[in-house]
Amino acid sequence: MPYPESLKKLIEKVVATRPARVERKKNGQEFPPLKLEEREPVLRNFHPDFIEGTRRSIKVGPSKGYAISNEIVDLLEAKSRVNPYLINLLDPDFETDVLIIGAGGAGTAAALLAAQNGAKVTIATKLRHGDANTMMAEGGIQAADKVGKDSPYYHYLDILGGGHFVNDPELVYTMVKNAPDALRWLEGMGTSFSKYEDGKMKTMHGGGTCRKRMHYAADITGAEIMKTIRDESRNHEDMINVIEFSPAVEIALDDQGRCAGAVLYNLETAEYHFVKAKAVIIATGGSGRLHIQNFMTTNHYGATADGIVMAYRAGVPVSFLHTVQYHPTGVVFPEQAEGILITEKFRGAGANVLNINGEQFVYEREPRDVEAACIIRECSPEGRGNGVPTPTGKFGVWLDSPMIDMLKGEGTVRKEFPGKHILFRRFGIDISTEPMLIHPTLHYQNGGLDINNKCETNVPGLYAAGEVAGGIHGENRLMGNSLLDVIVFGRIAGIQAAEYIREHGDSGTANLNHVKQYNEEVEAAEIDVDRIAPMILPDYSNPEVRKKQLTKDYFGTLL
Ligand code: MEZ
Question: I want to staple 216 with a disulfide (CB 3.0 to 4.6 A). Which of 32, 50, 140, 514 is the partner?
Fold first, then answer.
């Protein structure tokens, strides 16, 4: 749907202020970033993490007492999908060395390295291989690879600053140190990064970075990386077997408390299967599809926190889940594309963020949580009330993409942002001449399962990598560090799981005793036990229709 007349009228205000804003930028006169002491009150008053009543303490399990989003607690305080007394684990349907749960960036990188280190791998995935947030990541991957101009030291400091200095320093150190190598690994396998004519990789700034170290493949970096590593895993079919449409629903342990495999649910046949494994890597990604606080999301349909639920029941604590990342720029109009990510790279390339009067109100490269809070403040009636109303009564602000062509030459938007240019063109909007209407959108699970820098959890033989793990990004992740995280820690998890197997051999007889105990703990805590988890897929059906579908009459009308 193109912009209606009401929005076209408001765009005139953006056009009116544009020449002066472009001129200021060309002269290096940036809108002033907030001082550290100015950030805090905006976050406290406008970031969704701080809204009263949106978190509660978990009543059961290893992180009992920890207050996190209600939507995640609902899943942790739920019963298993399977009856642990009825599932037979003595006769496995599949056996493997390493079972990897999740087939996005972290899972696939882990598979490649586990196989390279001699392990037979089975990947079990909810949807298809590559249906994951990695595929949807746009803007880039950070790596301090410019000797003399940048160093992992500066990258480390940026990450700590962005994460409010509470990140796990060992994990941050491991990630930045391995970043240049991870980039070389991807390039060596054929990932096609954007380059200058002389072959040097293009790099950009992201919010909160002191150096240009964001490497990218136009605005489809995640898809390019995912395609490369998925293809590479297909080249090793003798070592890597992929089971699609089969999400894991419970981890199995052996009599010594070691990880021994997982129960899968076949979405096509509705049957349960047991995969016996010597080690398991959880790489199930995040939880955007829980729509925390009813936010729209950038995430793929399978992002429902399944890995957290399963590992938590098996005894793995969680941390940093009290913060959630809302990406500052998600589509708010046209509504058909609601929530879809508009990469931070637009702001890195110079696009201003503007209110209903066409005025800039925030420096465009604040760390994500600060940028998102400033946009919410601008839109909200309790804040400044300067949001742009959409035809259905939502609010957003403008992201002035046409500035980029004025700053960097005509055709830049089309060339550097082909994904978004095509998307908006489908709706009759040309983002090289018209701004985009945006609002913060639920993007990333900052926290997750506790791991160390070998991706080990506290359960022997159970590893976690990627968005499902917590600690690396502290309370706020910076752009380009999630693609890096999945590659660096995916690779480490693969290597470590293969090594664990060499040392420990086969797992013992598998059981679901921990699930029985967890169900009992949930009952003892007198929690309303109607809910079951993992969720597997979000349910967008109308609740009224859903209720009706359960009645005999409804089936009568269909027959
Ligand atoms: O790391 C991200 O989340 C990222 C690169 C997103 C984006 O804005 O493109």
Answer: 140
